[in-house]
Design brief:
This protein is α/β, with parallel strands linked by helices. It is built from ten helices and nine strands.
């Protein structure tokens, strides 16, 4: 069977189970055959060998059961970084790039700020910031040793050496230190939320998704404790759920943050909050 024939056949078979069937099969074929998108066209007439067919069939069956493409290929692009991901890490999502944009807008170029990324997972946010602001000192923390292994692998693969990875629960890994900027994409889904039983999140680590009965447990812990780890005038930026903006803003104001502001994602939902410690705090 040729590559193009396989793409058509498998795409048709997968269509009732995935709204992006053709794109899914193309991504899996590029992964197995070592091709880029242009290669799918130029190598379309090529005959797939038995091992390629075996691997592709196995991956397509797993995709039919709902497994995320990122876990099947072991890769996901974020901020133009090709990142390794595993079932022990959250899959980086495009909306989280807004968190990176807002952090970069606050970090002066060529200024050696101290920055920490809490709950780094695959290292996506920390590595994006490190690449754009090489003068900064970055700390990336996670409670999961397996996630930190992935993040360290990603740092090495991109030659990023100025990020230090630490194991620890949120701010515990920053004991005795203060930073110019703290960023985090913490878990923010309520226990029992039906979204936990749909799509990619069914396969992602629960520790990176669930945050108590109101979905705010992790955000609450970070917001209330971060002031002790911010320099005067330092910023805290957090991603939160699409329907949590008001509750999180009230939390920030109550905790004493200044210049609190919410920012919209591409879908028009308030998704990021920023707050600043007082200059004389």
């Amino acid at each position: 069977m040729s590559l193009s024939e396989y793409l058509t056949h498998a795409g048709t078979e997968l269509a009732p189970l995935s709204p992006s069937a053709r794109a899914d099969v193309e991504a899996l074929a590029m992964h197995v055959c070592g091709l880029d998108r242009a290669g799918l066209v130029t190598h379309g007439p090529d005959t797939l060998n038995p091992e390629q067919l075996r691997q592709l069939d196995a991956l397509v069956r797993r995709r039919a059961r709902g497994e995320p493409i990122a876990y099947l290929t072991g890769r996901r692009e974020f901020w133009s970084l090709d990142l390794k991901v595993t079932a022990q890490t959250l899959i980086p999502r495009p909306e989280t790039e807004l968190l990176v944009e807002l952090a970069l807008a606050r970090i002066p170029a060529q200024t050696p700020w101290d920055v920490a990324d809490l709950g780094t997972g695959s290292g996506a946010v920390a590595l994006a910031l490190a690449r754009e602001r090489p003068a900064c000192r970055l700390i990336a923390t996670d409670v999961s040793p397996a996630a930190l292994t992935v993040a360290r692998d990603n740092a090495r693969s991109h030659g990023i050496v100025h990020v230090t990875f630490r194991e620890g629960h949120w701010l515990a890994a920053l004991a005795g230190e203060r930073f110019d900027l703290l960023v985090s994409n913490p878990p923010y889904i309520r226990d029992g939320d039906p979204h936990l039983d749909a799509g990619d999140v069914r396969f992602e680590p629960g520790i990176a998704l669930r945050a108590g009965t109101d979905g705010l447990a992790a955000i609450r812990e970070i917001a209330t404790g971060a002031q002790d780890h911010l320099k005067p005038g330092g910023w805290l930026l957090l991603e939160h759920g699409y329907d949590q903006a008001q509750a999180v803003r009230e939390m920030f104001v109550l905790a004493g943050y200044h210049d609190c502001a919410s920012y919209l994602d591409f879908a028009g939902h308030a998704r990021i909050i920023a707050g600043r410690r007082a200059e004389d705090g």
